[in-house]
Automatic annotation (TrEMBL), chain A:
It is an enzyme of class 7 (translocase). Its EC number is 7.1.1.-. This is NADH-quinone oxidoreductase subunit N. It catalyses: a quinone + NADH + 5 H(+)(in) = a quinol + NAD(+) + 4 H(+)(out). The lineage of its organism: Bacteria, Pseudomonadati, Bacteroidota, Sphingobacteriia, Sphingobacteriales.
From TrEMBL, chain B:
This is NADH-quinone oxidoreductase subunit M. Belongs to the complex I subunit 4 family. Signal peptide: none annotated. It is found in: Endomembrane system; Membrane. It comes from Mucilaginibacter pankratovii. The lineage of its organism: Bacteria, Pseudomonadati, Bacteroidota, Sphingobacteriia, Sphingobacteriales.
Amino acid sequence: MNTLIIISVLPIVLLYLGLYKAQKALLPVTIIGMLIALGAAVMQWSDNAQPIYHGMMLFNNFSIAFSVVSIVSTILILMLSKGYFEKISSHIAEYYAIILFSLAGIVVMVSYHNLTMLFVGIEIMSVSLYILAGIRKNDFASNESALKYFLMGAFSTGFLLFGITLIYGASGSFDLDGIRDYVLAHPRNIDPIFYTGVLLIIVGLCFKVGAAPFHFWTPDVYEGAPSLITAYMSTVVKAAGFAAFLRLFSASFGSIATFWSPVLMVITIITLFIGNITALYQQSFKRMLAFSSISHAGYLMFAIVALGAASANSVFVYATAYSIASIIAFGALVLVRQQTGSDNVEGFNGLARKNPFLAFVLTVSMLSLAGIPLTAGFVGKFYMFSGALLQYKYIMVIVAVVNAIISIFYYFRVIIAMYFRSADRSEVVVPAYYKFVLGFSALVTIAIGVYPALISSLI
Amino acid sequence: MTVSILIFLPIVAALLTLLFKNEMAKHAAMFFAVVELAIALYFLSGFVPDASLQYSIDAPWIPQFGVYFKAGIDGISMVMVLLTTALVPLIILTTYEHQYKNANAFYALILFMQAGLLTVFTAFDGFLFYVGWEAALIPIYFICALWGGENRIRITIKFFIYTFAGSLFMLIGIIYLYLQTPGKDYDLQHFYNLSLDASHQSWVFLAFFLAFAIKMPLFPFHTWQPDTYTEAPTAGTMLLSGIMLKMGIYGVIRWLIPNAPLGYLTWQNVALALAIIGIVYASLIAFKQIDGKRLVAYSSIAHVGLIAAGIFAWNLYGIQGAMIQMVSHGINVVGMFFIWDIISRRLGTRDISKLGGIAKVAPQFSIAFLIIVLGTVALPLTNGFVGEFLLLRGVFAWGIYTTAIAGTTIILGAVYMLRMYKNVMQGELNELTATFTDIKGSEKLALGIICALIIVIGVYPQPLLHISEAAVTNLIDTVNHKFITTKF
């Protein structure tokens, strides 16, 4: 639990540093603080964690694993942001502080043991994100993004809260174990209010993770927000959303899966098709990533639809693979955009000739997102397919395969642009810390792909 | 020594090759490919041609998911390993006259691909097999798309998506079989031990069949092939046709029919019909081609169709014929593409109608060309004859009419191949062909090796047949045993 405390105190320290104009100290302090938080999380690794704070939180291995992924991804994104936020505004301390506040919300989201804490966690995270999306105060798209995100987010929070209330009304408890006990104790006569509550929670959470048909905010918000904030939203936030989703459904609603799994199945299939087919038609790389993130939400949903003992592991592996690959993609986008001034895929034409390293890591990222073997993305998809087949969800797997094939078109478009098309361009300058982050991420992607046992048995 | 050295050496070699520049990269790649061949020959020298698995390795990879790094060499794999390790240095040799841009990347990709191919041919674990299957695809995609012809971008992505689509369905088949095993693992032997009911086997068959049919390619899944072969750089075409398509044939022998014998019973007529339609269809189209490389591409579909027909007949003659014909076809098709590479590099065209009379100015070249043509049209005492004879003998068990139609490949093949030879090599010299210079140096060496192999295998195929015989017999027995014991 020290992790949460450290991550909550750190932004306050940062705000003071900002107040005293210690701009140079911001990034080192943030990263050191987060590494300490990381260490604190890993120290708590144990197989018999108990709920703490009167059953409000349960910091078990599941929570630790997702906290670690979130913290590491955030560190990587913050390292990419060196020199990036300075260009946007002069109050840089705000950025670091707000990102860390939202990270605190995420840690709560992955370790709640009580629906009120779920709500509090989601709100801490979301409110920070509303600000981050609109942080380029004079930019029209950024403002639009923030407003859209806020309205939609507030709306979906309403659904979530309403669902929680109904479930409390039926079961008399906010506690995950309490709700589970209620479901088990009433095998035949669960209150209809309870089912309504489950549906409303599904709606609320699907909004948060950007699953269709509740995805309409994603492309505009992702496109309008600064690229690194988008990276943060589409990786860390999405992974945490699914962790929260999975925890609730496996801990409390597992025994009524026959009720909600058809609903989620339909959502999954729609999400896959909408994400992939729309991504096909995008000219902007950033928007393509936004739609592809919708389709990845669909794949992640597999683990919840085909709920089983291995689900937590599948989501963990998939989310890790997806986050790391996306960080590379957004990092490369930031660099190329600085040079060409546009988000278009054409901006990547001929990149391989001048920047072989950048082209190579981005290729690894695209292959991983497409799910090609020997990359982490394949391992994630492999677990998802295995889990679904184990539950005899054949149609879903076929749909997923068709979508995996569609996704090849748009991921390979980037590879084709970089390697096979030529353009007059000068070398993109890749700062040393970018080299580190991108190289590290590519290495992790390949390492997990070659030897999945590294992370696949953690939870 | 285990087979892992064969799999990992090319990867290390590829990384080392990346460090060299242009000419040196070529020599480095050649060196590593020859070392790899030497290791394969060393394995052959100690190989006992019975049905057992030799030089095997069985190490945990993702043990909690039942994935093991299980690979080894039996008679069938030995032939494939020899084919791969022998053709790769030969293919590198044929590139010696080329100056590729970024040569180090080019040769590194060839070596990476070799690692994937050898994984496929030696894997005895479903997961490993799939990983090797895809790992061979990525390098060849880049080889074709980076060094290919004008339309390469559009055509290679079609190729990639086609083959990737097929293999994903195979992945579902593999995972499905895995979930049925009692101990939840991917061991091929445990897959063989399963007794699923007929309808499930039918689906498993289709899932695997799609992947293999696209890879070979069988009619009607062949539409990616002529374009890709034509647009790819010659070395890429050789890798695709000489080795990579054998992944599909090998897959049918090892992974398709033994895993789903009842599915095979259900679909055998369809599969055999597709194979035979492909033979006639591709031969007729080859007849009309004026681009030499494209003609060879279509002739390859016809030859592969006959190999597939022999396997789907599923008897000792058919499969042994397929084994030796895989080797022969690999050698002949590499030779044929090299011939066209030499012509197009010297004269700047592959248009048959613009050529003629080359035999007058290049006698050595014309002899090599003739031997390769004769090998391809299966003249007795060439390698093509042994394979096609056995294959037709295998198909004969199926019915005399089927065999008669399948046998047209020999007649039609002779027609279009000899006609091609006549139009290119004989007749009058024209302005263009008068400038043709005879082969020399590395070209002479490569063609010499190819011609020698064509004749040696044609005259004395017994040693090669002997390597795989016991393993093939054992596999047929396994499947026959499953026919008897499985409930319908």
